[in-house]
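Good day; I would like, with your permission, to put a structural problem before you. I would ask you to consider whether the tokens describe a fold that such a sequence might reasonably adopt. The full record is reproduced below for your convenience:
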Amino acid sequence: MLLKNRTLVEELLMNRKKTLSEEQLLEEVYSILNQNEIERERISNNLKGESSTNSNDFNFSLLETEKIFHENQIKKICIDYRLRFLESSLFANKIPEEAVTKINSLEKEHHTKLEGFKIVAPSKAFNLKNYDDPLLFVPIGNDYYYLIHQWGNDLAWYRKLMVLPFKNIVYFLLFCLVVSLMGTYFTPTNNLSKSVALAPLIIFLFLFKSMVGTIAYYFFMMGKNFNNMIWNRPFKEN
């Protein structure tokens, strides 16, 4: 029997039996899993709860530089794509377990507890106060944030173009100007130009004034605002 060949698994099992019983093994494993579940629940509660923390105690030598962003860089992306940068407690959708796992790993690696989570996502992804693609950040300090996790689908390539007219007042007026010029170009003025001087100019001014007035009325009466005004506001647009 002593000369019988054994697999590595059999050797492992024999050595384990010498150190602890199956009951002790199960108790230790249960304790580890239970502690891990407690930690994950704490992280989930931190994500759902409000926090005024604007920095965390990181070991900077362990941070990945490609995941560090200044608030101004985040702000530009939000304005360009009409997104919000708000507390994770306002996020309406479920934060994936993978994000919780990454937070847990970061905390163990840096020997700290993380707070003050923020998310970049479209307005509809938040439970805004009355008052496509999420990115989860945590503050480092001095308006710098560390990207923890990104999930969901990529933003559509045309989203930036679609929201460009509402980036700010300048882009809005430029949009109305370009559309009015195109409308003037395609408006037939052969007969009108014979009886009315500067007919194209009059048509352009009429189109420009009508477009600015109509769009502005709809935009503001519906409670909307420009991208650069709402990127970090927790209040809902009508």
